[in-house]
Amino acid sequence: MWTRPNSFQTAFKQQYPTVFENPFFTVLENPNCLSPGFFAKNYVSIPPAKYDYATADLGLVRLYFLPVEIPGVEMNDPALAGIMNPQNGEVELTGAFRDREGEPFRLLDASSCQHEGPNVWKILPQGQSGWLMLTQAWHPDWQVWVDGVKSDLRRVAVAFTGVRIGEGVREVSFVFSPPAWVSLSLGLGLLSWGLVLGGSAYLRFAPCPAPWRNWWEGEDLEFEKEQAQERKTAKSAKEKSARTDRPSKSLVILPTYNEAEMIQTALDEILTKAPGVEVLVVDDGSPDGTAAKVKSHPDFKKRLHIMERPGKAGLGSAYRAAFQWALEKGYDSVVEMDADLSHDPADVPRLLTAPQSRLWISTFGGWYARTLTGLPMTDPTSGFKAIRRRVLEGLNWEQFTSQGYGFQVELHFFAWQSGFKIQEVPIVFTERREGNSKMSANIALEAAKRVFQLAVRRIFP
Q1: Does position 217 have pLDDT exceeding 70, yes or no?
Q2: What is the pTM of this model?
Q3: Of 84, 41, 94, 35, which is closest to residue 65 (Cα–Cα)?
Q4: Which residue, among 430, 216, 443, has the nearest Cα to 315 in the 3D structure?
């Protein structure tokens, strides 16, 4: 159910019985919507896109007055029941309808409707006249033809599609015609998949150089046996150490920039749901007062710390500074986390336990990073992770160049290449609740470029 305004929800619930409800959505029953459409004789002119008045619009429907977004009405039209004031949502009924309801709506039966494909409805009015409403969600890409002549389409009953027809009309056709870019996007998507599958088949079966085939299939490349043996020995030593080493002092790192709206809630939830950890906020001079809110928290200088920097220097820079701080203070493990609560603080203990034994950018970014770098991970772009102290000490930080989200792929890649074990824990990712995303085109391009560089580095160390 649409969440705004709240009065709209209440009005719907009062008009239609509830079939199912949980904290996330509500299902209401409206048997009349099972009909493909209906005719309405009387209507009220309403202002366009005034959804704050949706409750009033639903009240008009109950009186058999169809709310129609239509300018320039004729006041002497006998079917016009009133006009809604665009300033306050009040309806001024015409004299003929001040003390009576409109003519009841007439549902279309199956013999009047022909569904000719997913994007075409053909209606046979059979002598009926008035406002013909199609029970399909309004969209500007709908078009309507009345006896072969294109007519004006109107938004009716808040969210549906309608047209007014007169007597003698034989056929009305509603056609959904998406713009050309939709077909273009679909074609580009299919072409991309064709190139990926074709390239995979070529590298799999064609007589191409073995290193390229191995790179595509994600196998380890061993250009020098001595380097491979050294990595194997180092990995064996680290895995042996992992069986005896147990994190005991953990730090959650929160890089922030203009997170004043969410930081109080984020800190409360982390400190409550992960009672054994401490928190370091790395604030890049947020002008909205994020640092001041951190310092006013009751746990400040106890389990909560802050590193204030003079200006916005990027995510990768923030994490590198925080890692160095954690090493100097003697922490055994660190947890990367976003301050907007897109990562659930309740998952922090599970994430810390694992070392002891973002719909499009996350999916595509993960696929892109996995394919090029060969990282054995579902989501190499994840910014929610727990890291052992010995990993931070064992990495060459001079190799890191990314200032944005590409830092996450770098961290996974260099740790993996150094022989450290990576273990993924399933979590639920929640969309940002407040504030604005820090992702930009420049950051995305930097990450894409860095992933390609890491892929080349993997083939030619």
Answers
A1: no
A2: 0.40
A3: 41
A4: 443
Which string of b and e fits 16-32 if b means at least 16 CB within 10 Å? beeeeeeeeeeebeeee
Distances (CA, A) of 20 to 24, 27, 121, 437: 11, 5, 30, 33
Rounded Cα distance, 277 and 270, in Å: 8
Q: How do strand 91-93 and strand 80-84 relate by DSSP bridges?
A: antiparallel
> What percentage of the chain has pLDDT greater than the value 70?
70
β partners of residue 151: 144
Q: How confident is the model at residue 243 (pLDDT cuts 50, 70, 90)?
A: very low
Distance in Å from the first CA to the final CA of the chain? 54
Is the pLDDT assigned to residue 72 strictly greater than 60?
Answer: yes
pLDDT at res. 326:
92
| DSSP-derived 3-state class of residue 123 | strand
Determine contact, residues 79/41, Cβ cutoff 8 Å. Answer: yes
Amino acid code (one letter) for 65? F
Q: Residue 188: CB partners within 8 Å, gap ≥ 6?
A: none
Distances (CA, A) of 370 to 38, 365, 410: 53, 8, 12
Query: Dihedral (C-alpha) 384, 389, 394, 395: value to the nearest 10 degrees?
Result: 30
Least confidently predicted of 140-149, 182-191, 375-384: 375-384
Which residue type occupies 312?
K
Report d(CA 26, CA 5) in Å as an integer: 15
CA separation for the pair 410, 447 (Å, rounded): 9
CA-wise closest residue to 391 among 347, 421, 369: 421
Burial letters 364-395, b for 16+ CB under 10 A, else e: ebbebbbbbbbbebebbbbbbbbbbbebbeeb
Q: Give the 3-state secondary structure of residue 120.
A: strand
Among 209-213, 257-261, 306-310, 314-318, the range scoring the smallest mean pLDDT is 209-213
Cα separation, 303 vs 271, in Å, equals 8
106: three-class secondary structure by DSSP: strand
Nearest CA to 385 out of 362, 417, 413, 408 is that of 408
Find the angle CA(279)-CA(282)-CA(398) to the nearest 5 degrees.
110
Q: What DSSP string runs through 292-356?
A: HHHHTSTTBTTTEEEEE-SS---HHHHHHHHHHHHHHTT-SEEEE--TTSSB-GGGHHHHHHHHH
Q: Which two structure tokens, joined as six digits, stand for 226?
A: 């001595």
Nearest to 339 by CA among 268, 277, 407: 268
Q: Residue 65: is it exposed, middle or buried by C-beta count within 10 angstroms (0-12/13-18/19+)?
A: buried
Can you give the pLDDT at residue 357? Answer: 41
- Amino acid identity for residue 260 in this structure: A
